[in-house]
Write a structure and sequence with these properties.
Structural class: alpha/beta
Shape: elongated
CATH superfamily of one domain: Valyl/Leucyl/Isoleucyl-tRNA synthetase, editing domain
Radius of gyration: 37 Å
CATH class of one domain: Alpha Beta
Number of strands: 29
Helix content: 40-55%
Number of helices: 27
Largest sheet: 4 strands, antiparallel
Strand content: 15-25%
CATH architecture of one domain: Alpha-Beta Complex
RNA sequence: GCGGCUGUAGCUCAGAGGGAGAGCAUCACCUUGACACGGUGGGGGCCACAGGUUCGAUUCCUGUCAGCCGCACCA
């Protein structure tokens, strides 16, 4: 890396805005995001879920990217050959709709005014113009993905992959074209797949309509929620076992308003309990009716067109929208005496997941992927544990979906996307499906052919993402080295849309699960727990957050707010907290840097010369390295981040730095050197550990560190070292902390002003405790502002003094003027209550013979130790109370 | 109807078969030579409810209630 000035002084407040861009450039120009050709390292690869090329970053992306970047940076430092492939998605409907809207607003033109070719050209221009917006935003977040491998779903290579897959599936009979009932969005004017339909409960009415038999006034009452489709009714069905209607089966009915004649048929699909037990059958406008129609070979006339309006079949109602027609038909039925009654009901109605328009079940010719054969290996693979879900519970959801999946409608009536590689021959009528552009029919060699107008579902190309981005169908170097990828990280909301499809496509075409681990996170929500949405206007722009608090603060917030698989709420206060933490780290680093030796040369750590506090912080660091590494290995980012937060703030800043000051400002030059070395070692480790979470600030601090050899991003992840494990130091510093807290508590509770120096006596009967206290006396004096500290194993207890007990020792603060017998008794009384509780709890356990018999011996031992400790403390406090009461 | 998640301090949330935690908020005190984006001390909780398993349950199991989310059906 370029050599920044060493040991330069840092400002007292960290200002991310001035640093982040520069650091990112430094990384990118240093080529650190690209893997080094090093075959001795194990590969670790991730493909980034591609955002919409013309979209902009939202907090969900930011979260997703942060988690991926944490893993990537961690694995890179651990020593894997890491590659993270970024890219964008052409997002068919979304992009097309957006361009159409702008076209309409700015030029009052529709896509039909332009024609297909010109329109598609305009979308490409739009993509060129706005396509870098989102990738720049991903850069602003600090993502260390390999931009040299960036892909777009409509790149040549990826388009080749799409064609290859389409053709192969078609040749295997796994893609077919057929006239079926599909989900149609009249506003988007395209077919949708089942999962692009959202079911919402709607309060509606159930209309009971009289269909006359033509004999006298005899009628059958049919219940329907969609009277406007009656013009396309071809039958009325009853359950074969429904005795009420047995005599009518085979007879005909006259449709009200049109007088068409339709038969009464039987089908077990009919639920005799619902409504009247009679169902009107409209095969072209209802998925269930469609199946009935197929079974009974019924006609399938359509009365609603693609634009959602009624057609000529509806006679006088032609031209009305579905909604208008319903109102009019109901009114006319009522007027004609055909409406028996109406009933309020609530039922689920499908809505377009993109524009929320009510979806029309629509009979049309579309392309489908046969799912049965694709789902089977996917299920088998998952059940054989070849795919590791984090958290595990998503596996069940995944399996359930695959077990029930229906054929996938993949054709879309759009212009923006991968055009279906099928050509129809106008002479022989054959369908040609081909990898190459065709000009003549492969069957009859006629030049009279035309390509299918439709494009493929965007998810069809996304399904190939993990291998198409790496070069497939070529056996490219990248594909051979980095596929299957190591992990796929994304929100659980696209488990079916994307993850499932990648899995079955991966298995079909590469014979591998496309990734080993599937790590699913939740959704980011607004403060009140609601979904962030444009319509609610409660969205937060991550770029705003970055601008105000820095990318690191955003990242740390998102990462530490993560509980595997769960949603999290966004609060500005959390970001502020993260910003404060980053500033804390900044200042702790400043402290360390200011106190290193002027020449920047560090003494090697000499274990024999270290003090307990040094061994303690190194022990803590060791512990932190271990747990953070473990949490990261298990993709538990939240817990890893929180551990680091606590270690950095509590152990390092609040305690160790304060301990270190004594040595740094003291007279012992040798000790000072060791302290400097420890400070440096801990900061060094901390920066490495925090780097995946808050890469900018850690790299920036790193640049100021002496003795650095390379950029932090490519340094080694810290290793645990057995030599730094020190139970003894934990115990020693634990006692010091207990004494300090007790001393501070006395000062605070008695309102002793901070500037006032006090006298303290500590009495203990244990020689090891005594030596710890003697060794630590300067800490106690400094932290509790004690001018005169007496430590003794025997002797008189100070008379008029405030007191506290700690494990193995008693503390006295003689303060004649401040001791009020009443308040002191009250203080001690509270302590007695607390300690009594503890003693009782421990006694109850230990008096239970079953506990002593059955509980693990270490639990019993520790319980015994606790009891002794509490009993002793209790006794001391009571003695003290007795003494006061006798006054 | 099937499946899942959540219920812990005022708020947002961790946690874990064996002494209830954090951040924010709150109260008191503090310009202590890294940091007021800071320091010190304090208050605050039958860990939703009822059973069960266990020596021991806030944690595991079952059920109930409440909130939420998928999937399926709905004439």
């Amino acid at each position: 890396m370029p050599n920044g000035p060493s040991n330069r002084s840092l400002a007292s407040v960290y200002v991310p805005q001035t640093v982040e861009k520069e650091i990112y450039q430094l990384w990118e120009q240093g080529g650190y995001f690209q893997p080094r050709p090093d075959l001795s390292k194990r590969p670790f690869s991730i493909v980034m879920p591609p955002p919409n090329v013309t979209g902009s970053l939202h907090l969900g992306h930011a979260w997703d990217n942060t988690l991926q970047d944490i893993v990537i940076r961690y694995k890179r430092m651990v020593g894997f050959d890491v590659v993270w492939v970024p890219g964008t998605d052409h997002a068919g409907i979304a992009t097309q709709t957006r361009v159409e809207k702008t076209l309409q607003e700015q030029e009052s033109l529709s896509r039909n005014d332009l024609g297909r070719e010109v329109f598609v050209k305009r979308v490409w221009e739009w993509k060129q113009k706005f396509g870098s917006l989102i990738t720049d935003q991903i850069r602003a977040l600090g993502s260390s993905c390999d931009w040299s491998r960036q892909r777009f779903t409509m790149d040549d290579g990826l388009s080749t992959a799409v064609r290859e897959v389409f053709v192969r599936l078609y040749e295997k009979g796994m893609i077919y074209r057929g006239k079926r009932i599909i989900n149609w969005c009249p506003r988007c004017a395209t077919a949708l797949s089942d999962i692009e339909v959202e079911h919402q409960d709607i309060s509606a009415r159930l209309y009971y309509v009289r269909y006359l038999t033509g004999v006298d006034d005899q009628a059958v009452i049919v219940a329907t929620t969609r009277p406007e489709t009656m013009f396309a009714d071809v039958a009325v069905a009853v359950h074969p076992a429904d005795e009420r209607y047995v005599s009518l089966v085979g007879q005909t009915l006259h449709l009200p308003l049109t007088n068409s004649v339709i038969p009464i048929i039987t089908d077990t699909y009919v639920d005799p309990e619902f409504g009247t037990g009679c169902v009107k059958i409209t095969p072209a406008h209802d998925p269930n009716d469609f199946e009935v129609g197929q079974r009974h070979h019924l006609d399938m006339p359509q009365c609603i067109d693609a634009d959602g309006k009624l057609n000529a079949l509806a006679g006088p109602y032609a031209g009305l929208t579905r909604e208008q027609a319903r109102v009019q038909v109901v009114a006319d039925l009522k007027a004609g005496g055909y409406l028996e009654r109406e009933e309020d009901m609530v039922h689920a109605v499908g809505h377009c997941s993109r524009c929320n328009t009510v979806v029309e079940p629509f009979l049309s010719t579309q392309w489908f992927v046969r799912m049965e054969e694709l789902a089977r290996p996917a299920l088998a693979g998952v059940e054989a544990q070849n795919l590791n879900f984090v958290p595990e519970r998503f596996q069940k959801v995944f399996i359930h979906w695959l077990e029930n999946v229906r054929d996938w409608c993949i054709s879309r009536q759009l212009w923006w996307g991968h055009r279906i590689p099928a050509w129809y021959c106008d002479d022989c009528g054959q369908i040609n499906v081909s990898r190459e552009e065709l000009t003549t029919c492969e069957f009859c060699h006629s030049a009279n052919i035309h390509q299918d107008e439709d494009v493929l579902d965007t998810w069809f190309s996304s399904a190939l993402w993990p291998f198409s981005t790496l070069g497939w169908p070529q056996q490219s170097e990248d594909f051979l080295r980095y596929f299957p990828t190591s992990a796929l990280m994304t929100g659980y909301d696209i488990l079916f849309f994307w993850v499932a499809r990648m899995v079955f496509m991966g298995l079909e075409f590469t014979e591998h699960m496309p990734f080993q681990d599937v790590v699913l996170h939740g959704l980011i929500r607004a403060e009140d727990g609601k979904k962030m949405s444009k319509s609610l206007g409660n969205g937060v722009d991550p770029l705003d957050v970055i601008e105000r608090y820095g990318a690191d603060a955003l990242r740390f917030t998102l990462a530490t707010g993560t509980t595997p698989g769960n949603d999290q709420r966004f609060h500005w206060e959390k970001v502020e907290g993260s910003r404060n933490f980053i500033n804390k780290l900044w200042n702790a680093s400043r402290f360390v840097l200011l106190n290193l030796s002027a020449d920047g040369v560090m003494a090697p750590l000499d274990k024999s010369r270290l003090q307990a506090v040094d061994r303690w912080i190194l022990h803590r660091l060791n512990d932190t390295i271990e747990s953070v590494s473990n949490f990261l290995d298990g993709y538990d980012f939240g817990e890893a981040g929180r551990r680091l937060y606590n270690f950095a703030w509590d152990d390092f800043c609040d305690w160790y730095i304060e301990f270190a000051k004594l040595s740094l400002y003291g007279q012992d030059a040798e000790m000072k050197l060791q302290t400097q070395a420890v400070l440096h070692t801990v900061l060094d480790g901390l920066l490495r550990l925090l780097h995946p979470f808050i890469p900018f600030v850690t790299e920036e601090i790193w640049r100021s560190l002496p003795q650095r050899e390379q950029a932090l991003i490519v340094t080694q992840w810290p290793q645990t070292q057995a030599q730094w494990v020190s139970v003894e130091a934990e115990k020693e510093v634990g006692l010091v902390q207990e004494v300090v807290r007790a001393g501070r508590n006395i000062r605070s509770e008695l309102g002793i002003s901070p500037g006032r120096e006090i006298t303290m006596e500590i009495q203990t009967e244990q020689s090891d405790t005594e030596s710890i206290l003697i060794r630590s006396r300067l800490y106690i004096q400094r932290f509790c502002h004690v001018a005169d500290l007496v430590i003794h194993t025997q002797g008189d207890i100070p008379r008029l003094a405030l007191s506290a007990v700690v494990s193995g020792a008693q503390l006295y603060v003689p303060l004649a003027g401040l001791v009020d017998v009443g308040t002191e008794l009250e203080r001690l009384g509270k302590d007695v209550v607390r300690l009594q509780g503890e003693v009782q709890r421990a006694e109850k356990k230990l008096n239970n013979s079953k506990f002593v018999e059955k509980a693990p011996s270490d639990v019993v031992t520790s319980e015994r130790n606790k009891l002794v400790d509490y009993q002793e403390k209790l006794q001391r406090v009571r003695q003290r109370m007795d003494w006061f009461q006798s006054q």
